[in-house]
Amino acid sequence: MEMADARGGWKAADTTAWREHLHAATMVGRAASSRTAVELGYGIEAEPGPSGRLGHWRIAGVPGEVIEVHSKRAAQIDAECARRGEGSYQARAVAARNTRDHKQHQSEADLVRRWRSELDGIGWPADRLAAAIDAASAERGPAPRLTLSDARRIMAETVAAEGDLARRKVFSRRHVIVAMAPRLYGQDPRLVEALADRLLADPEVVPLVGVAGARERAYSLASVLARETAIAEGLSRSLGRTDGPATTARAVTDAIAEVEAGLGVPLSAEQASAAMAICTSGRAAEIVVGVAGAGKTTMLKAVAAAFESSGHQVIGTATSGQAARTLGREAYIGESATLASLMWRLQHGHLHLDNHCVVLCDEVGMTDDIDLVRLVAHVEAAGRNWSSSATTANSAPSDPAAPSKV
Could you tell me if 298 and 243 are in contact, meaning their C-beta atoms sit under 8 angstroms apart? Predict the structure, then answer.
């Protein structure tokens, strides 16, 4: 666009705000189209997609084989992902670009003839398909009118401790719209924004100030802030204790020498210093922050070796299975499992912690707050040392109580 000020010249539009609101606008559009489908007499049902997070809807009564025969692009993308052995959201986006052909114009009449032929070929001619859709619509009946109790239930589900907003921790109005819209499909689309505004005035929703990088008003949930406060206070108490497991400096030096001999290269001064501090401080908690590739896992190999040589039981854990396996394989921690598995064993009495146990929790910044609260509680109850390794890339800058912050 041409600038009309004294300096003049041309500038491109800043599309960041457009991209940020695109998802919310899409969800409002889906709510409007779902209402139109209901008004036309169709029954609708949720369409979560392969990931479970699509948040779309579909016309009820359409058989799976009909959807498959008319989902050629999805089949192409699935085949490409299978060929590459990847299935993440990013991998599907790459596969979509790599398999996209140039569009060829076809008349509407030609398309309808082809579609009808494909339906006939799988045993679902148009009249049979229409009958199935009508039957599904009759079975569901007209969409029920939203009641006050329905609205309260929807708002409660949106701010639930296990919901999308709680996982996001810091959110804005557009995120509320994205989370709420699928619960209102078939209703008047104006309710999406009306209930979003009502929810933002709920006591459970806390307005935030001074959030770095925020382009609009930021919010959090009272339950999220309470959990983060519990984490911070629990860690603060543990950091202030000096009765946790500790080793001698000689044990750490020997462990570092053993690791260096296996690697064929010396540890860096930062790695050696971190290992020495963790093992000899006697604090009941230690927090290590480092960028990806800084050598935290290698450092933890020396930590684990030093504690084990001093008679302590070392347990490795992480949210993701891959990270837990990496701890076991690369840090030589014999007992390493996901945090979900560790919590289940602790809660069902299959594992007991005492002051001779050391738990190394990797990627704390990616750990769910509820799991972290439970882990800290077990830490305090057992009176043992808790060492955490987290990367700055996994620490949310908008999360003021994140335990992986320094």
Answer: no
